[in-house]
Amino acid sequence: MKFYENLEDVMKHLTSSGAFLTVKAADGAVNTMTISWGFIGYMWSKPQFIAVVRPQRHTKKLLDSAVDFTVSVPFGNLTDELKVCGTQSGRDINKAEVVKFVAAKETASPVVDNCGAYFECKLNYIDKFDEAFLPKEIIEKVYSGGDYHEVFMGEIVVRH
After folding, report:
1. Structural domains of the chain sorted by starting position, each given as residue range(s) with its CATH number in brackets
2. 128 has which bridge partners?
3. Is 48 helix (H, G, I), strand (E, B) or coil?
4. What letter does residue 95 receive in the DSSP assignment?
5. Which of 30, 32, 121, 154 has its CA 20 to 30 A from that of 14?
6. Could you tell me if 129 and 148 are in contact, meaning their C-beta atoms sit under 8 angstroms apart?
7. How many CB atoms lie within 10 A of CB 124?
């Protein structure tokens, strides 16, 4: 896997336009949500994708029973779909009617079709941000409601 190839473009699209974080729960339920924050790097000598999800999100509930997740990064397309998946909950709508899911190569969680980059990730670490270690200005700006993100780190097993 050419891990760093086009990574700058991927991160540019992730942070400016967004990407789809998709998960298939243990019960078979599938959902995707729009993310615009994430980290890519190496941990334990393996490539990792770190995503953060607020506790009230439907996707977070599914991640709690999942073994993997995917991140699909559209390059300049699917803007309407990103908007819907970022503003509508999978509790209320079927996201498979908004985007087309296709089977991933190595994970149970599917990817979103027609994206420029995909990361298939085996979930290997979950944690929650602790306010004791966050700067006061971040708490005031991002977490005034006390809904601290949870961290989901997955080993990138396929990048395409």
Report:
1. 7-159 (2.30.110.10)
2. 150
3. strand
4. G
5. 30
6. yes
7. 15
Spatial distance between the Cα atoms of 11 and 24, rounded to a whole number of angstroms: 24
For residue 92 the two structure tokens come to 């209320």
Q: Which helix (H) or strand (E) holds 144?
A: none
76 or 55: whose pLDDT is higher?
A: 55
Query: Please, which residues have CB within 8 angstroms of residue 143's CB and are 6 or more apart in sequence?
Result: 129, 131, 134
Q: Is the dihedral of CA 62, 40, 33, 72 positive or negative?
A: negative
| Phi-psi group of 135: left, alpha or beta (phi > 0 → left; psi -120 to 50 → alpha; rest → beta) | beta
User: For the chain, how many residues are written?
Assistant: 160
The amino acid at 8: E
**100-157 pLDDT, tens per residue?**
999 999 999 999 999 999 999 999 999 999 999 999 999 999 999 999 999 999 999 9
Instruction: HSE, CB side, 13 Å, CA atoms: give it for residue 28.
Output: 0
HSE of 9, CA atoms in CB hemisphere, 13 A: 11
Measured in degrees and rounded to the nearest 5, phi and psi for residue 66 equal -90, 165
One-letter amino acid of 71 = V
